[in-house]
Amino acid sequence: MMSTFKVDATLTKDGMLTLSDLPFHAGDSVEVIIVPRAIEFPSNGYPLRGKVLHYERPTEPVAEDDWEAQR
User: Fold this and answer.
1) What digits encode the pLDDT tens for the residues 19-50?
2) What are the φ/ψ torsions at residue 61 (nearest 5 degrees)?
3) For the chain, is the Cβ count within 10 Å smaller at the N or the C terminus?
């Protein structure tokens, strides 16, 4: 039976990763797959909930004076 062991690690030098305290023995054959850590979002499904409490004039144009076409 094949078991899987997962470990999170951070590279301390470009191109070099050191793993220790693995649950394997000398002579065991293992397969190593390196996957970059994905950005984790809050698990509640609403990551912006509670961030903005109030918008001032939300439907008003923004920076109208900056448009060259209106000059």
Assistant:
1) 999 999 999 999 999 988 887 766 777 777 77
2) -60, 150
3) N
Distance CA 64, CA 67 (A): 6
Of the candidates 19, 44, 42, the residue with the CA atom closest to the CA atom of residue 30 = 19
Domain residue spans in the chain?
Answer: 1-37
What the block records as the tokens of 63 is 């920076």
Q: Which two tokens stand for residue 12?
A: 């301390």
Helix-, strand-, coil-residue percentages of the chain, each rounded to 5? 10, 5, 90
Q: How far is CA 10 from CA 4, 5, 25, 34, in A?
A: 20, 17, 23, 11
pTM of the predicted protein model: 0.45
Q: Are 7 and 24 in contact (CB under 8 A)?
A: no
